[in-house]
Amino acid sequence: MTIKLIESTKNPTIKNIIKLRKSSERKKQKLVIVEGIREISIALMSGLEIDSLFLAKNKELELKEIKENKITLLEDKVFSNISQRQNPDGHLALFKEPISKISKFKVPENPLILILEAIEKPGNLGAIMRTVDAAGVDAVIINDPALDIYSANAVRSSQGTIFTTPLFLANIKETSDFCKKHKIQMLATTPDAANEYLDEDMTHPTALIFGTEATGLSKKWLEIANKTVKIYMNGKIDSLNLSVSAGVVVFEAKRQRGLIPN
After folding, report:
1. Mean pLDDT calculated for residue range 79-102
2. 110 phi, psi to nearest 5 deg
């Protein structure tokens, strides 16, 4: 089979990729853009279903597991037209959107889950996904996101790890009902809490809940949560970067579980 070559930026396929930069269009077509060979490789290893791969004409195909009928070669000027990176490596793929319902999650014996309410910044989401991948968190649940979860910035800043940990969208009620059903304690983080996170037992099924940097968690979550906890700070401000805060508490939970040497 001869691999197709596209030489014009006016090609309908190229025009559609440009359209897919819009969140609404990606949701409509149920596709995710993944650029970069590292990110594409991680998406494939994580079990995502590839729709198509676009390869700059001068690049050698390294992803041998992708069938030729999924591959399209592009002239350099055409690839530059669809790339969203300053220094592209000549690989861009479309994958089927991986989001699924929280009810489909196969809960492990002693889960550690991260819940993010109204997360706003792609860079924070990407950094958090790298943290949960490193720590081996079982799932991430996002309530009412104020961003496009699979934007180019989120995928890039996660270095592909946005695909390695099960990621679910759910509202607060669905999330809290899920936790109650599976007997998962809900620990809400807030600077107004009386107890420090270090004093809480996170060795049994636990969901760690984080709000936005600007306003923190909603009143609804603070009322539903089993307990509230804080990170003690000595500085002049009462807020760490969201991804740093999540990393601090997540790795304490892993330490308590004996998965990190003291």
Report:
1. 94
2. -135, 75
Helix (H, G, I), strand (E, B) or coil at 178: helix
| pLDDT tens digits for range 34-56 | 999 999 999 999 999 999 999 99
User: Is 108 in the same domain as 87?
Assistant: no
**Same structural domain for residues 115 and 229?**
yes
Phi and psi based region of residue 61 (left: phi greater than 0; alpha: psi -120 to 50; beta: remaining): beta
Name the residue range of residue 15's domain. Answer: 4-96
Q: pTM above the 0.85 mark?
A: yes
- Both 22 and 125 in a single domain? no
Element at 114 (helix H, strand E): strand 112-117
The answer to whether position 186 is within a domain reads: yes
Which CATH number is 11's domain given? 3.30.1330.30
From residue 77, give the alpha-carbon distance in Å to each of 8, 25, 174. Answer: 8, 24, 47
pLDDT in tens, 220-255: 999 999 999 999 888 777 668 999 999 999 999 999
